[in-house]
Design brief:
Layout: H1 2-17, E1 24-29, H2 32-39, H3 49-59, E2 64-69, H4 76-86
Parallel strand pairs: 1-2
GO molecular function: nucleic acid binding
Protein name: RNase H type-1 domain-containing protein
Length: about 100
Amino acid sequence: MVELMAIKVAIEMFSSLFHKVQLPLIIEFDLNTVSNWLKYRSLRPWLLRKLFAEIEDGSRHIVEIQFAVTNHKKNGMAETLAKASMSRKNFFKAAW
């Protein structure tokens, strides 16, 4: 769920920052399960249907979006941030 929430926030931030520029968005994550959920609707957990709907809605505003599965050990920062966000009550966004 944390990976999906991060994807949703990345799409929202990208859309708001680059809404006038036609740039592709590439999102990397390390779970094959999430990749399969994004590709195949029939595999998606019913409890997360609203989150998937929000991701799909946000993706419509981006000219090109790619999802890439990376090596689990390669991205230690993402794993650390995911664990930290699981212990927080509220998910937050930052922009620069």
